[in-house]
Amino acid sequence: MRSDLSILLNREHTNGQLANSSYAKVIETVLKSGVHADDRTGTGTESVSYVPSFYMLTGGSVPLISGKSVNLKPLLVELEWYLKGTGNIQFLKENGVKIWDAWADENGDLGPVYGKQWRRWNDTRIISHDEYLRKLELYCERGYKVEGYLGINENRVVLSREIDQLQSIVDKLRTNPTDRRILLNAWNVGELEDMRLPPCHFVFSLWSRELDFETRLTMATDIGLQHNRHGHESIYTQMLCLLGEQGGISEQTLDELGIPKRILNSCLVQRSVDTFVGMPFNIAGYGILTQFIAKITGHMAGAFVHFGFDVHLYDNHKEGVQELMEREAPAESDPIVIFPHEWAELDDFKWDGVQICGYTPLPWIKVPVAV
Fold first, then answer.
1. Per the annotation, does 314 bind a ligand?
2. Is 134 annotated as a binding residue?
């Protein structure tokens, strides 16, 4: 099977422009339909309920809004911190990131938040000694360890294990990618009271399907064009060279180059959405995470959906919102993410190894952060 150069894309709008438009529609929805309410912080909000927004990740795109600047270093450091699976902010402080300082205790602890649930979800159960003996092989296979015994005759066994949800996602995408249970959950009901701030973004789901040849080539071409635009050599730019030299390309050649055969889409569910300050961070961070997971599992990222429960604008953000809505986002801002070729596993992620190219936003708009 072959295809010719007519497969090259001619999009009317860039993914960067689409991201700005999707985000602006969320703000407009809150401004037009928001209901005023008090909130936990005492600031006051205008809020609406259950709002979806949609972002394209094709071509390596990242949903970074450009009407105001999103600070990339805290964004990337925070993402690596999540991947480390800790609830202590020491790593953030070592890298000069203070976005979680207001919630941490004197030891820098936030409790079992985000990354702790992503990588080290605690599963503890108490069972009878008889059940333990009957199902010993099963409990060992699932990674449980005996923590101790309870009861007058020590007839109850305490078992525990830690579950790496994110590694499980990677494993399933590699071995059973059409599984409909590929999701991450940070809402651990048994540990919410131990968290300094319960998770706002709490469910992350991924969806994988095999691509037909034409779509596979289209998506690979889009990535190749972006990589070529930013002077980055990759399997996708190699594919473009062959496509240009030969006037067409076979599916076998795509296989030989290592061009992925599958698309990866993702969705984030967020219970509380600080639309002006938090949401730009959230959509960009999970967009980058989707791209990273796609890379290490043999996928090309396609689309990202954000779904907010309580979507609000704080009263003390109104001036900033007004300034943002009066701005015209730069049309040339079309950010993509590039990872080192050798990154192949979750623990390879290092914030300073991530390249964000093509991001040319307008200046940051400073507003107070509700704590």
1. yes
2. no
